[in-house]
Amino acid sequence: LLAWVVPREGAHPTGRGLRAHTASRLPSYMVPAAVVPVAALPLTVHGKTDFAALPDTPGAEAPTADGAAAPR
Asked: Residue 35's domain is classified under what CATH number?
């Protein structure tokens, strides 16, 4: 599951923090595996979210399950 996030002005949320927040409120299968920050959600001409125009996972913050850094 991937989450696109538009942070409030001046806010700098982290993927780990957002995952912890959602994990405390949602079932585990609904917690995103990665978080992609975006400046704004792209919209279609009808004003709905244009999912095809959203960026892919590059730039996503995907913390590991135990909080350890991934091997290099």
From this structure: 3.30.300.30
Q: What is the reported pLDDT for 4? A: 92
15-62 per-position pLDDT tens digit? 889 999 999 999 999 999 888 889 999 999 999 999 999 987 655 555
Q: Does 58 fall in a domain?
A: no
Number of domains in the chain: 1
The helix (H) or strand (E) run that includes residue 15 is: helix 15-23
In one letter, which amino acid is 72? R
Question: Interior CA angle at 32 toward 34 and 13, to 5°?
Answer: 65
Show the domain range for 26: 2-53
Run of H or E residues at 34: strand 34-37
Global pTM value = 0.67
